[in-house]
Amino acid sequence: MDRLKSSPQLMIVSDLDHTMVDHHDSENWSLFRFNALWEAHYRQDSLLVFSTGRSPTLYKQLRKEKPLITPDIAIMSVGTEITYGKSMVPDDGWVRCLNQKWDKDIVIEETSKFPELKRQAETEQRPHKVSFYVEKDKAKHVTETLSKVLEGRGLDVKIIYSGGVDLDVLPKGAGKGQALAYLLKKFETEGKPPVNTLVCGDSGNDAELFSIPGVYGVMVSNAQEELLQWHAENAKDNPKILHASERCASGIIQAIGHFKLGLNLSPRDVSDIGQNVENGSPGLEMVNFSLLLESWRRAEVEKTELFISGLKATTLPSGFFIHPSGADHNIKEYVNILRKVHGDKQGKQFRIWVDDLLATPLGSDTWLVKFDKWELSGEERQGCVVTAIISKKDSDWFTWVHVHETWLENSEQGLWIL
Fold it and tell me: What is the pTM of this model?
């Protein structure tokens, strides 16, 4: 987290399945709304943490299936693994914490004696997590009995039942809540405690997150009965916990506004993108341009010479644009290509989103901006790394000076425009 020189203004800690990700939303609309909000207004000075029951294998699979932006921190395998950044660097200190009074071999030995437990796939069996499926009506008995057996073998374990089917055996010091507590203590030691923390969840294995002192919490509208019951029994009078009226990521956006934690108007919710540009940040500029290009190709923007002229007016006459293919163009002239692609994605599931944006000041009015830009057209996804220099020397509007794009993940086979 070295990129933040001071305390993060907001740290969002969110579960993924049915919280950040709505598996009933084929258009991924709420997720796209959140992505645009985060990259435009929060990426520079805040932290995004994904806290999921998924193993690293299934987490990476979800990232290929859904348009998730890159978190600063990933808490996986029900709080037994913590990694940092795009490279997913593991936290060795957390591993040492979990090794106390834990023996995976003993857990496997004793759980094998319970016929009610059906072992999950090998990808879900992790160094500090042993996972099963169990029928709901048998879960309570198995949990109570297994706890006593493992305690008798000298282990300190925690058994978490969630989703009406998943049973995880973890070290007692593990879990989503303990992983978050560990991170908060770590930030405190480094002198960078978050100004505000918002935890977000929908199921039983998220309950621990809401128990951390001082945090705000949102149970999305589609939260499961097990989490709502926990809330009714343990925190119904806590004004810092909201049961949102919106589903999944839209409920998270709702909570940001409800608790007054910062801006909660996603650039995707602004009908006229142009009115949301003036006096904006470099992040907002990049997000808005991607939305403008998306709308142009979906034919949601009228094809006019005025539109093309407006884009040209925001570019430096001597600036250049390097296409991912390596071709070098004058940036003002390259804008002309937009005439050819107006409406080429009309009626299709076509979206563009920005990820992992970092704006570095080069002076009082100039920035070096780097981010990943992704295009999703139906089931096909392609992306590139964008490095741009923009300035605000003569007006409240940004001028694009130079743009250099390079392919991401073998995307060169696709048709890439801007």
Answer: 0.92
